[in-house]
Structure to design on (195 residues):
């Protein structure tokens, strides 16, 4: 673990990786399971792992998701081999006796759900980022987006649960023709400092 990744790996994960707007290809169940098995290893606070994933692939599931999408996200999502709905379990703490057995971590999050809002959103966001990196490591391209009707997605895919949708990520082999020029990033001196 002490050796840095080579340039080819860094290019695949970061420098050459892009957010695509059109996709092709197929993604097997085995690949989706590999993807989850990688992303689940990323750290979250007290191993809370509040993210929950729905891999939307079948034509029936795509048709169900379609009406919840914003106009700008419809075509690219319908053409993507898989769209991942990433939600967060607002009662994630119920699984902590199993996930973090070292101490009584469940008690840290007992009480009104409002007290679990910030930790569930923070740690789900980390897991969404791990999903993107895991997908890239498996040779897949991604297209994360937030333009959708959350209440409708929750009703269609999470009814009767304590899970709320937060982000969608299209997966597949990205079409380079769908890319915009890479947007600028802040320099180190603009965004960071060493103290």
């Amino acid at each position: 673990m002490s050796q840095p990744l080579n340039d080819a790996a860094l290019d695949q994960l970061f420098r050459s990786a892009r957010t695509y707007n059109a996709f092709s290809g197929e993604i097997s169940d085995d690949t989706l399971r590999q993807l989850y098995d990688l992303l689940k290893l990323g750290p979250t606070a007290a191993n809370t792992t509040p993210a929950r994933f729905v891999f939307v692939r079948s034509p029936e599931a795509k048709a169900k998701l379609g009406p919840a999408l914003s106009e700008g996200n419809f075509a690219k999502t319908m053409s993507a081999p898989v769209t991942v709905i990433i939600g967060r379990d607002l009662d994630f703490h119920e699984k902590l006796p199993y996930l973090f057995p070292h101490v009584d971590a469940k008690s840290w999050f007992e009480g009104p759900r409002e007290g679990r809002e910030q930790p569930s959103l923070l740690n789900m966001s980390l897991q969404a980022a791990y999903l993107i990196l895991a997908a890239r490591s498996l040779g897949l391209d991604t297209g994360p987006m937030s333009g959708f009707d959350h209440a409708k997605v929750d009703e269609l895919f999470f009814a009767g649960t304590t899970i709320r949708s937060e982000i969608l990520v299209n997966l597949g082999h990205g079409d380079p023709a769908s890319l915009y020029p890479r947007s600028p990033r802040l320099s180190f001196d603009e965004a960071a400092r060493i103290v």
